[in-house]
Structures are given as structure tokens and as C-alpha cells.
Amino acid sequence: MNITVIGGGAFGAAISSVMAKGGHKITLYSPTNFKQLSATRISKKLSETELHKEINITNLLENTKDCKSVFLAIPTQNLAQFCEKNIAFLKEKQLIACCKGIDRATGKRPSEILSEYSSQVAVMSGPSFAIDIFNDMPTALVLASTDASFLRQLQKEISMQNFRLYRTSDVLGVELGGALKNIIAIACGIAIGAKQGDSAKAALMARGFSEMIKFAKAHGAKEKTLSGLSGLGDLSLTCNSIKSRNFLFGVALGSGKFFDKNATVEGVPTAFAVSQKAQALGIEMPITSSICALLKGSVSTEEIIHSLLSRPTKEE
């Protein structure tokens, strides 16, 4: 399979390597760090690991025009702009979104953006860290598409022993699970950073998952999807590991410590996009609303923790 991966960050480098190991012809398009990657083949985004020897690295999309499938591993907030600039390249390609979140400017999910440029669109999401994929650690993800034939074909072609892919037609549920869990991970990080303990974090995870289901069902997603890999699975991983950028961002907020401004924290723009959608539908989402208030600077970390942990008790 002739594949182009857009984005030379951690996840782009990881899936490029795992698919190259599977015998696919891989071209990694990475204009921002092309010189460094092509000269050293070392991914600084992946703990200084060396890329698979068969991966072709380029900074010119014209060098990838013969590819069949395009995996887009760039931040959701940059996806629409990339697509607009490269309409001719994307036309008639199979497009697979490997990013999580909701575009703050438009309120669109990745698949909604990609559907404007191709009739064959899929989403790959679930509990995974790039370094684990790169190191061939067992990982299970979900592929979602409304095109059943394309979905089965894609699942068959890129699944491997330690890179297991399940499939679903519930694109909405998969994308919302992957987007919403980042908001909850920030909240859990805040609790840990503020030294509120693991019990408080567990409470935020559970109530946060309830928020995720409520929001997703209101938009037409299946609760079953949220209870699977792309929802509960991803939530569990992201809220419990220091490998998670969203969780670490929350820890920094809760402790008042420095956080790398160059790190991608999709939960931030997603929180604002989700909050706006929730308000429009009259959905109460106290954790998401509190995170937005904190990010705006209208409340302090202490106030947000007190507010969330002292809400009126009610039937669960």
C-alpha cells in the first residue's frame, strides 16, 4: 500500500514506522523539521528514536502524488488550513484523520473537515501513546468510517500483531470520545497538581465520563462507542499517565509550574468549542465549563477545585 503520512511529530513518526514495518511504502511529509529528520533520521519528538530505514522523508507534497492513502497526523486546529492549501493533492485520495479534537474556529470534527475534500474518509483513534506504537508495544485502536467497504479494506491492510484495529461506523462517537477525554484529562491533572489526591482524580474521571456520554448522545453518537476504546479506553490512559500532554498541562495548572508552550494540548481549544456547543443545546457540563473559566482567567485553580468538589449531591 502506497501511503503518505502528513506530519513529522510524534504520532506521525510512530505510525510511519509501524506501517513501514508492515511492508507498506511510506512517505513522511514533514516540512517544519525536514532538514533535521532527513539528515539524521532521528525523531526528537519520539525520545530521540531512529525512523524505519524504508521511510522516505520529504518536504514536497508533489513527491507523494502517487500515493493511495493519506494519514493526517497534524493538530486538529491546523487541519482545515492544510486542506484548503492542498485541495489538488487531497482530491480522490483516501483520507484518514489521526488527530483528536474539535476545530475551535468552525466547531467541526476532523472527519467533517476532510469530507469536504474526499468521499473516502476514516478516523483512527483510541488509547495510544506514540512511543508505545513506535516500540511495537501492543496497542488497540478504532477505525471509523461510514464507507463499510473502505473501512474493511483499510482495517485488513494496516492491522498487525501488535497494532490491532477494530472498526465501527460510528464516526461521531469515536471522534467525540477522543476529543472530550482531553478536557477531562486536564481536570484530572489539575487535581493531582494541586495535591488533591487520587480519589479526587477518580471522581473527576467518573463524572467527566458522564459528561462525555451526555454530550455525545445529545449529538447522536452511540453510548456503546463511548464505552469502548475510543472513549473510556482513551480516557483511562490519558488521565493516568505522565506521557499525556493534556494531563501534564493540567498538573502544571494545578501546581503553578511551567509548561512547554510549544507542546500540543488539544484539550484547550476543544474545551472552548465543546462549551459553546453545550450551551447552544442546553447541556450542563460543569467540568468543561470550569476548565474554560480557568483558562480564561476568570477563576483561580483553588476556586475551580472547590467548585467541582462541592457541587450539590444528587442521584448519580
Structural features, described:
- The protein is of the alpha/beta class and 316 residues long.
- 50% of the residues lie in helices and 13% in strands.
- It folds into 2 domains: 168 residues, 3-Layer(aba) Sandwich (Rossmann fold); 138 residues, N-(1-d-carboxylethyl)-l-norvaline Dehydrogenase, domain 2 (Orthogonal Bundle).
- The chain is built from 15 helices and 10 strands.
- The strands form 2 sheets. It has an 8-stranded mixed β-sheet, sandwiched between helices.
- Helix 1 links the parallel strand 1 and strand 2.
- The N and C termini lie far apart (49 Å).
- The model has no long low-confidence stretch (mean pLDDT 94).
CATH superfamily of the largest domain: NAD(P)-binding Rossmann-like Domain
Helix content: 40-55%
Radius of gyration: 19 Å
Number of strands: 10
Helical region count? 15
Structural class: alpha/beta
Strand order of the largest sheet: 5-2-1-6-7-8-9-10
Mean of residue pLDDT values: 94
What top-tier CATH class of the largest domain fits best? Alpha Beta
N→C terminal distance: 49 Å
H/E series: EHEHEEEEHHEHEHEHEHHHHHHHH
- Low-pLDDT regions: none
